[in-house]
Design a protein that fits this description.
single chain, Rossmann fold, 11 helices, alpha/beta, 2 domains, six-stranded mixed sheet
Length: about 260
């Protein structure tokens, strides 16, 4: 039985076509990928419990012809090369996936194919969370909501909007698993995400799943179960654009 290529492999194939058409494949395009400090990535928000601030994740930034693209990862690394070299990276490790995703975002931003490739700063993450919760309530009503990946601002607003009894959250950070946040126990994303999907009507999924390698399994399960599947954040900007998926990121900035 033939295995369908992963979402990232499909996105890479589409990006190659675009890069070749735009004559960027063999051009001397510099790609600088560097981990950002928390202040560089999201400024100085009042709340201090974001994963990037407490040191569990880092943001990397790719720059292609002056355009910037961000990606969250727990395994950051730096790279300098060409777009063609990035397209040849393997996609089987988190560091390489992070470099590819950030570069994909930067390339599409340079070509004006996508917006919101740079993370919002200061108090914008709080405004973003409120707007996401309001959007879901307006569109779907008072439904069961599943949040894949603990973003504390979004989690708090979902609980405020839908109620703790109607909100489920999974995460991969061992420090969060089993602990209550905003009245909701954080489930182990490594073992209970399917349970979350089955119990939810709407899934709000962090784009970081593209980097940590869990996106495809979550996406397949959600489609089979007939659930609404909405990636959020800057990390997913380019992939969602290329794959025709909805993404929610109200406050993402243009790099």
């Amino acid at each position: 039985m033939t295995t369908e290529p992963s979402i990232l492999e499909q996105a890479r194939s589409r990006l190659k076509e675009i890069v070749e058409h735009e004559n960027l494949m063999n051009a001397e395009v510099s790609v600088w990928v560097k981990p950002l400090t928390p202040e560089e990535a999201i400024g100085n928000p009042e709340r201090r419990d974001f994963p990037i601030i407490i040191g569990k994740e880092r943001m990397i930034e790719a720059t292609v012809l002056g355009a910037r693209g961000h990606a969250f990862t727990d395994s950051p690394r730096a790279l300098s090369g060409t777009v063609a070299q990035v397209l040849e990276l393997g996609l089987d490790t988190s560091p390489d996936r992070a470099v590819f995703v950030a570069t994909l975002n930067a390339v599409l931003r340079h070509l004006d194919r996508v917006t919101g490739t740079v993370h919002c700063k200061d108090e914008d993450p709080e405004h973003c969370a409120r707007e996401i919760a309001a959007l879901l309530l307006e569109r779907y009503g008072r439904v069961e909501v599943g949040l894949v990946g603990l973003n504390p601002a979004i989690a708090e607003r979902l609980v405020d909007t839908f109620g703790a009894e109607h909100t489920r959250i999974t995460d991969l950070n061992r420090d969060n698993i089993g602990r209550p946040r905003f009245g909701v126990e954080i489930w182990d994303g490594g073992g209970r995400t399917e349970e979350l999907i089955d119990a939810s009507d709407v899934l709000v999924v962090t784009g970081t799943t593209l980097v940590n390698g869990t996106f495809d399994a979550i996406h397949r399960r959600a489609l089979l179960a007939g659930k609404h599947f909405i990636p959020y954040g800057v990390t997913a900007s380019g992939v969602c654009e290329l794959m025709g998926m909805e993404r929610v990121c109200p406050r993402g900035q243009d790099g």
